[in-house]
Write a structure and sequence with these properties.
This protein has 314 residues and is α/β, with parallel strands linked by helices. It contains ten helices and nine strands. Helix 2 crosses helix 10, helix 5 crosses helix 6 and helix 5 crosses helix 10. The longest helix is centred in the C-terminal third of the chain and has 25 residues. It binds aspartic acid (ASP). Aspartic acid (ASP) binds next to helix 6.
Length: 314
C-alpha cells in the first residue's frame, strides 16, 4: 500500500515514495478540474469539517473546493463565528464535533502540534492545514507538484527559499519534503529570521540572495509573518525590501528558466516586486491551481482510509 496513514500531520513523517504517490494521484485529479462539470462521486456520503483557528483564504477555499469536487459534504467552523469565542476549550469543541461523526477534520491552528493532539483523540482523519511555525504539509505538496511539473523532476533541483524562514511553516515543510526528494535547499534571510542550526536539517544558509540566485532552479519567496514576530526583528520593511526583496534587477543574474514561487498572501513591494509576481517566471497562480488537485488527492486517500477503518457502519 503506497499510502496507509490515518492522518496527514506533516511532511517530516512521510517517506519519499508516499510523497511521490500523492503527487502522482494529484496529477491524475488535475483533469477533473478542467472539465465543464467538475464533480465526481468518489467521496459521496463523506463529511469533511474545516476547523480554522487562524485566517485563511487559499487553503480553506482550496480544501473546500477539493472536497466538493469529490462530492463530500463540507462544514466550516471559524474561530470568530463559533463557541470558541464563548470560552469552549479546544478539546470540548473536538469532542462535540466528533460526536457528529465526521470522516475528516481539516485544522489550522496557531499552536504548533494542535493537529497532532487532535489526531490522538479522534478516529476521524486529521489533515494539518498549518500549525503555528511548524508545518503546512499540503502547501509543500502543492509546491513540489508545481516544481515537478515545470522542471520535470525534483531530484537534483536547487531551491532557494528567501525570507522569514524562522516563522515559516511553509519553509519547514518544503525543506523536509525537498530533501527527501533529492533536491538541494538554500535558505536566505536576515540573520534574525534564520533559525539557529537550521543547517542540521540539511539546508545551506546564505547571507544575501545574490549569492544563491545564479544557481537556483526555483526561487521561493516567503511572506514576512508580522503576526508571528513578538519583537521587532527587522530595522524596517524598506530596508528588508532593499536587501532581500526579489525584484527584476536582482533576477538579472538568474537562470533563464528560473521559476518564482510564493505561497501567498504576497506583500507586493515588500518581499516581491509586482513585476516579478506577475511576470513570465512566476508560478504563483499555478501553485494555487495545483493546490486543489493536491487536496483532492489527500482527501481521497484519507477519507477512503476512514472507511477501511470501519468508522462508518453500512
Ligand atoms: N499561507 C501560508 C501559511 O498559512 C503562508 C503565509 O501565510 O505566509 O503559512
Amino acid at each position: 500500500m503506497p499510502f496507509n496513514r490515518k492522518d496527514l500531520l506533516g511532511i517530516r513523517d512521510l517517506e519519499a515514495h508516499e510523497i511521490e504517490h500523492i503527487l502522482d494521484l494529484a496529477k491524475s485529479f488535475k483533469e477533473i478540474n478542467t472539465r465543464s462539470i467538475k464533480k465526481v462521486p468518489t467521496l459521496r456520503g463523506k463529511t469533511v469539517v474545516h476547523l480554522f483557528y487562524e485566517p485563511s483564504t487559499r487553503t480553506r477555499t482550496s480544501f473546500d473546493i477539493a472536497a466538493k469536487r469529490l462530492s463530500a459534504d463540507t462544514y466550516s467552523i471559524t474561530a470568530s463565528a463559533s463557541s470558541l469565542v464563548k470560552g469552549e476549550t479546544f478539546l470540548d469543541t473536538l469532542k462535540n464535533l466528533e460526536a457528529m461523526k465526521p470522516d475528516v477534520f481539516i485544522i489550522r491552528h496557531s499552536a504548533s502540534g494542535a493537529p497532532a493532539r487532535m489526531a490522538q483523540r479522534t478516529s476521524a482523519a486529521v489533515i494539518n492545514a498549518g500549525d503555528g511555525m511548524h508545518e503546512h504539509p499540503s502547501q509543500a505538496l502543492l509546491d513540489m507538484l508545481t516544481m515537478r511539473e515545470h522542471k520535470g523532476r525534483l531530484e537534483g533541483l536547487t531551491v532557494l527559499i528567501v525570507g522569514d524562514i524562522a516563522h515559516s511553516r511553509v519553509a519547514r515543510s518544503n525543506l523536509w519534503g525537498l530533501k527527501k526528494m533529492g533536491a538541494s535547499v538554500v535558505l536566505c534571510g536576515p540573520t534574525t529570521l534564520i533559525p539557529p542550526q537550521i543547517e542540521r536539517m540539511g539546508a545551506r544558509v546564505c547571507r544575501r540572495p545574490e549569492e544563491a540566485i545564479p544557481d537556483a532552479d526555483v526561487i521561493m519567496v516567503l511572506r514576512l509573518q508580522k503576526e508571528r514576530q513578538q519583537q521587532m526583528l527587522l530595522p524596517s520593511l524598506r530596508e528588508y525590501s532593499m536587501v532581500f526583496g526579489i525584484n527584476a534587477r536582482r533576477l538579472e543574474k538568474a537562470r533563464e528558466d528560473v521559476v518564482i514561487m510564493h505561497p501567498g498572501p504576497i506583500n507586493r513591494g515588500v518581499e516581491i516586486s509586482p513585476e516579478v509576481a506577475d511576470g513570465p517566471h512566476s508560478l504563483i497562480l499555478d501553485q494555487v491551481t495545483n493546490g486543489v488537485a493536491v487536496r483532492m488527492a489527500l482527501l481521497y486517500l484519507l477519507a477512503q482510509r476512514a472507511e477501511d477503518r470501519g468508522q462508518r457502519p453500512e
